[in-house]
Amino acid sequence: MSDEEALDFKGYYNSLSTTACFISMFFNKTKLATGTCFFVQSKHGPVLITNRHNFTGKNNFTGKVLSKTGGIPNHAVVTLQTNGGEVYYHIDLFDHEFQEKPAWIEHPTLGEKADIVALPVYEMSNIINEENSISLDANWHNFNVGSELQVIGYPFGQISGPFAVWSKGYIATEPDFDIGGLPVFLIDCKARPGQSGSPVFARFKVGDVVEHQGNHFQAKRTMNYFAGIYSGRLRSDSDLGMVWKQQALVELVKNANEIGSSHVMKKSRHLFKTTGSKPVDLANLISDNNSLL
After folding, report:
1. Do the Cβ atoms of 147 and 139 come closer than 8 Å?
2. Average pLDDT, whole number, for the chain?
3. What are the Cα distances from residue 68, in Å, to 31, 249, 291?
C-alpha cells in the first residue's frame, strides 16, 4: 500500500485515510448511531468488518441498549469515497424472511463474546480494491508495549469530509497478553464515540529503526502495519480502549468465507446510490445540538 496517492483535487492524501469507512445505523428511517467500518480482502472477495455492538445496538459486555431512543438497528448505510463521489451501500442487518437471523458472521469460537463481526460483500468487488481495503496477511513486525499506534475513524460522525480522522495512541498492555481471556490489548488513546470499528495501524517513517527477529533495520520507505480493530473505551471517564487483535480478525474472516453462503441476502436489498461529495458543515459540527453526538 503506497503512502500517498494523487487526488483529483489539488493536494495529496495518505492512503490509510481511505481504508476507514463511515457507517450509520438505523431502525427503519430513524438514525440511531454512527460508527466506523472497513473492508478486508479474502479469497472470495471483500468482507466488511466492524464492531458487533454497532450492528446489535447493545453494549457487547453488558447488553445495555446504546441508543437514547431505545431502538435496535435493522439497517445500516456505509459511505465509501470514489472518484465519482460518495457511494452509499445499504445493508439489511436481518434476513427479510427470517427476521431473527442476523446478516453478519461472528467469531467461530468466541461468538457473541467477541465485539467483532464480518459481513461478506462479494458483490462489491468492483468497488473494493487494494487501495481502499486492508490486507490481513501476517505482519512480521512485533508490537511492543508503549508503541505508537494510529486509530483511523470517524469521531462524532463524518466530520472531515471524504477522509477519516487520525487519533494517536499508545499500546498500554503487553500486546502478546490477552485481556480477560479475549484476544484484546489495551490502547491509551483519546478516541471518542463514532470511532468504534476503526482500523488500528502502526506506522514507520523513512529512517525509523525497526526490529525484526532480534535485528535492527532502518526503514527505507514508509511502512504501515495493521494491528487490529478499535472497539471503544473501557469507561467513559478513561482513555483506555480495546483493540481486537489481527489474528482474531483472520479467524473471523475465514469463518465468514466458510459459512457466509448459508445466509445470502437478496441483491435487490443491497442498494447503491452515488452522489457528489458534500462540503463539511462546520457550523453543524460545533453546534450544541449536533445530532451525531
Report:
1. no
2. 83
3. 11, 30, 12
